Amino acid sequence: MTDVNGVSVVMPNYNGARLLEENLPSIIRAMEAWGGPYEIMVVDDCSNDGSVPLVGRLFPTVRTLVNDANLGFARTCNRGMAAVRFPVAFCVNTDVRAEADLVGPVLRHFADPSVFAVTPNILAEREGKNQGIVSGLYGKGFIKGGFAPLETRTGVRENLYAIGACVAYDMDKFRALGGYEELFTPYLFEDVDICYRAWKRGWRSLYEPGATVHHYNSATIGRAGRRPKRTVYFRNRFLFHWLNLTDPGLAAMNLLHTALRLSVSFLWLDFPYYRAFWGALRRIGPVMARRRAAGSLQTLGDREILRRTSGEPS
């Protein structure tokens, strides 16, 4: 991509009327400060808190799409992304407040055809983390992203993934990847997965230190109960690795650690872990189909991706 002639913003929303009222003005101000053509679209996932009329009343220039049923994060975002007009689209959660410098520093990276996604500083003050910096880690059979401490700033760097709270995507590449993987419905791991699939094709995720947003973390997902959320987390962690892990040694370690944990989790009554495993196993058919389809398109291996995104010197 050589020319960004406009920017789209997609905001998935579920019962986030208060968050929209508080944070959407900051997104509009950031777009206006940038000065180029833009569109903002709220995709409402069957809210019942008056979100849709609130947007129409307070933000008349913002488009709304309304789901007929509750579809979850991936499907809701995919619906919005399918409707955008411009070559770069931000996906922004309703619990994110942007500073005025958001757009320009992020957009400059899309002149590089290897760039898939870019995140700004994503300051989660409550957790003490800068979620815009995500280091690639591997331990106990699983890949994971490590967030930097809140005060950390680096130069531009390669990230394991771009957290979905606030990320800009090259839309040609997003569509080529098929959008967010809907096997992860209702939420969690969609952002990790799409960036990892992009890395496998040689398309990079970057951190841009010159732009900033503030993330009031999990303001929507946090309403879910602890046990259901934990089950979804582990189910989707299984799915992510089964979909993407191809290095024989790393895959073998993943299987070994999974088997060990399954053999002992009953000792501390960790039944959500078993529900998560069987929930993932029921999706093994689509998982294997997606692995076969992706195989011939992959150019980078797991170890190379982890090496490049570890944050350690080469």
- Ranges where pLDDT stays below 50 over 5 or more residues in a row are none
**What is the share of helical residues?**
25-40%
- CATH topology: the name is Spore Coat Polysaccharide Biosynthesis Protein SpsA, Chain A
Number of domains: 1
Overall residue-averaged pLDDT value: 94
3D shape: globular
**CATH class value:** Alpha Beta
Please count the beta strands (DSSP E, at least 2 residues each).
11
What is the succession of H and E elements? EHEHEHEEHEEEEEHHEHHHHH
CATH architectural grouping = Alpha-Beta Complex
β-sheet strand percentage: 15-25%
Q: From the alpha-carbon coordinates, what is the Rg to the nearest angstrom?
A: 19 Å
Task: Give the name of the CATH superfamily.
Answer: Spore Coat Polysaccharide Biosynthesis Protein SpsA, Chain A
Helix tally equals 11
Alpha carbon gap, first and last residue: 28 Å
Class of secondary structure makeup: alpha/beta
Largest sheet descriptor: 11 strands, mixed
Brief sketch in words of this structure:
With 314 residues, this protein is of the alpha/beta class. The chain has 11 helices and 11 strands.
What layout of secondary structure does this protein have?
Elements: E1 7-13, H1 17-34, E2 38-44, H2 51-58, E3 63-66, H3 73-82, E4 88-92, E5 96-98, H4 103-107, E6 115-124, E7 129-139, E8 142-149, E9 157-158, E10 166-170, H5 171-176, H6 190-200, E11 204-215, H7 226-244, H8 248-264, H9 271-281, H10 284-295, H11 302-309
Parallel strand pairs: 1-2, 1-4, 2-3, 6-11
Antiparallel strand pairs: 4-10, 5-11, 6-7, 6-10, 7-8, 9-11
Helix pairs in contact: 1-2, 7-9, 7-10
